[in-house]
Amino acid sequence: MPSDPLTADHVLEFPGGYTRTTGPVIGRFLTELRDGRLMGVRTAEGRTLVPPLEYDPATGEPVTDEWVEVGPAGTVTASAWVHEPRESHPLDRPFAWALIRLDGADTALVHAVDAGSPKALPPGTRVRPVWRAERRGHITDISHFAPEVTKIVSPVSTRYRLTASPSLTRFLEGVRDGVLIGCRCATCEKVYVPYRLTCPECGNPIAGEVTLPDTGTVTTFAINNLPDPRAPEVPFVSAYILLDGADIPLIALVGGVPAHQVRQGMRVRAEWVPAEERTLSMTNIRWFTPTGEPDVEL
Ligand SMILES: [Zn+2]
């Protein structure tokens, strides 16, 4: 009768650590690291190896005893993202193991980069070391590398005062009272809303006011997918609405109907905020909602 294989878990470790000598080249590198410097060693051919080696891997020749300071910044040449760091990893959050070519070096060293997201670390990303406060001559004297600062978020705001023209003031007084005031050009008979004092069509001054109803027709519209504090929800519709009797449309929000049901020729009516909440502002009209009448030909 078959049985499960016998298993037992073991740990192979050197409690307290395994002591090894560094040799003169790695020892120099780590000693400089303890002092907060990144150093490379020159090969006979003039290349700078970081981390340093005792022999040039390209030729097998011993390296020179010429040392040069490199970095501290460098460029990521390749990286692998660690989604779930292990206990022994240098960072307790997702990070990248990266090949970093320090400025002045001809080879790359491997170290951790705290980039937040793998998308933030394409090859060519510039990084800098984050040093530990206490250094002891070990590669972990550098806690990790971090991308250079390439952008900041600055608050932007400006204050300004807008002074309404006499005609706009008259229009807004009407809106405060729940009335849409327009005007008719005596020369070309075009009807405009909001109220204005000269005709943009024929250039003549306009004397008289007309009161327009708060019903109209959607002539064209846009579906918006970015939130707007004035809008009912996202997506919402802003539309050109031709008030009944007017010759030019005004722009307003459309509410009370799913965005995808709004159409050209749809009949709408203004939804006013309660009279006691009204101010000298177009926000007195919350939006236009469908009247339910049949669509009209434009
Ligand atoms: Zn005119």
List its salient traits.
298 residues, mainly beta, five-stranded antiparallel beta sheet, 16 strands, 8% helix
Question: What topology does this entry show?
Answer:
Elements lengths: L22 H12 L4 E4 L5 E2 L17 E3 L4 E9 L12 E8 L6 E5 L12 E6 L10 E6 L18 H11 L3 E5 L6 E2 L16 E4 L2 E10 L11 E8 L6 E5 L12 E6 L12 E6 L8
The helix content, as a percent range, equals under 10%
Unique ligands: zinc ion
Radius of gyration: 37 Å
- What is the H-and-E element order? HEEEEEEEEHEEEEEEEE
Number of helices: 2
Could you provide a short overview of the structure?
By secondary structure, the protein is mainly beta.
Question: What does this molecule look like?
Answer:
Helices cover 8% and strands 30% of the residues. The chain is built from 2 helices and 16 strands. Strand 5 (95-102) and strand 6 (109-113) form a beta hairpin. It is elongated and about 100 Å long. The chain starts with 22 loop residues before the first helix and ends in an 8-residue tail after the last strand. The model has no long low-confidence stretch (mean pLDDT 92). The structure holds zinc ion. Zinc ion (ZN) is lined by residues 185, 187-188, 190, 199, 201-202, 204.
